[in-house]
Each structure stands twice: as C-alpha cells, then as structure tokens.
Amino acid sequence: MPATAAEQAYELLKEKIITTRLKPGTMIEEAVLVNDLGLGRTPVREALKRLEAERLVVVLPRRGMYVAEVTLAELRELEEVRIPLETLSARLAVQRITPSQLDELERLLVDVSSLPPNDGSASERSLEMDRRLHELVWRASNNSLLEVECARLFNLSLRMWYMLVDRLEPSDLHEEVFGEILAAAKDKDEQRAEDAILKHILLFGDSIRRHL
Predict the structure, then answer these.
(1) How does strand 27-28 pair with strand 64-67?
(2) CA–CA dist 181, 187 (Å, integer)
(3) How much is the pTM?
(4) 53: which residues sit within 8 A by CB, 6+ positions away?
(5) Is the terminal CB of the chain with fewer CB neighbours within 10 Å at N or C?
(6) How far lies 162's CA from each of 1, 19, 28, 153, 166, in Å?
(7) Is the distance from CB of 40 to CB of 6 less than 8 angstroms?
(8) pLDDT tens digits for 150-179?
(9) Which domains does the chain have, with CATH numbers?
(10) Is 110 exposed, middle or buried (0-12, 13-18, 19+ CB in 10 A)?
(11) What is the pLDDT of residues 5-29, one digit of tens each?
C-alpha cells in the first residue's frame, strides 16, 4: 500500500532530525517545511504531532515549535529505558532468530569489517550500518511491540551520534558487540547476547559523554 502524504512527511522530517540536517534547537516553520517537502500543510502538521510525541520536536508556549535539544539528562533517561528493552530483544533474538536472519547478520558483519577508516571520524555509513544491525536484532526477536519501541528509542540515540559525527572515532561505535550476538545466537546463549548489548549501550553512553 502506498504511503500516505502524512506518512511521507513524517519519514522525511524524522530523517532530517535524526541526521541533524535539522539541528537541535532549530525553530520549525510549517510554511517552510510545506515548501521544502512539496506536501500539504495538513500532512506536515500531522507529522509534526507524531514527532512531538516521540520527543524529537518540542512546542514552547508563546515561542513556537523547535527541534528538541540533546542533553545529558536525556542520555541518562535513554539508558535507563533502552537497557531492559534492548537486552530483552537480544535474548528473544537468540531464541527466535531464523537461519536466513543468521545469514543476514553474518553478511552485515562482513560489511562492517570492510568499512574503510575515514580519517579518524565516525562516518555516516558506519552509523547507518549500526542502525541496520540493531534493526535485524529487533526483527529477530519476533515481537512487533518490542521492535517498535526499541526503534523509537534508538532514533533518539542515533541523533546524538549524528550530532557528534565529526568528533567520534569509528571505534566509538563498538560494532564488535554484534559478533558476540552472532556467536550467542549460534550457541543459543541468551546471557552472552544480553551482556553484549548491555556493554554496547553503556559504551555508547560513555562515548557520547566524552564528546558532548
């Protein structure tokens, strides 16, 4: 089924915010967005309401609508919620991952290992690869509610990466965790998968705090 205009507006705006093409703190002007996206005012307005509910957009009384700022307080809150959900996702993925998903994970890990060094900063390609790896783990959990919530929270985290992309090292992404998850899935070792994703999230937080 083709995406509705509101869905198109939502996806386009969400990507602009996550990748910081719309930077934190930027004032949002509906008329400008309507013109930039080539979509009507109503779908843009509906998209902005969804993004506000997802904490990517904030409305300040008597001031207007803005792209949400990124703060260390938000990082702490994200860790507190992501850790139980992501570790659950990893545990379920180990239980339920299909042979085709195992193959897909192996191929993604090969792609990650072949990424060239990029003069000391974390590249957008590395960030996109990290997103694909997480998405595969969520899908492998075979729990659509968990997948949706993990993705929503991950988007808030990913925006932090993009905001600091010029300062982060490729090693800050700690992609070795997905090799641990692959090994855990092959051995049906749920605890190893949980430990790996926990380490990944905590190291992510350490890297962001160091650079923010």
Answers:
(1) antiparallel
(2) 10
(3) 0.87
(4) none
(5) N
(6) 31, 5, 19, 15, 8
(7) no
(8) 999 999 999 998 888 777 766 666 777 888
(9) 5-67 (1.10.10.10), 72-211 (1.20.120.530)
(10) exposed
(11) 899 999 999 999 999 999 999 999 9
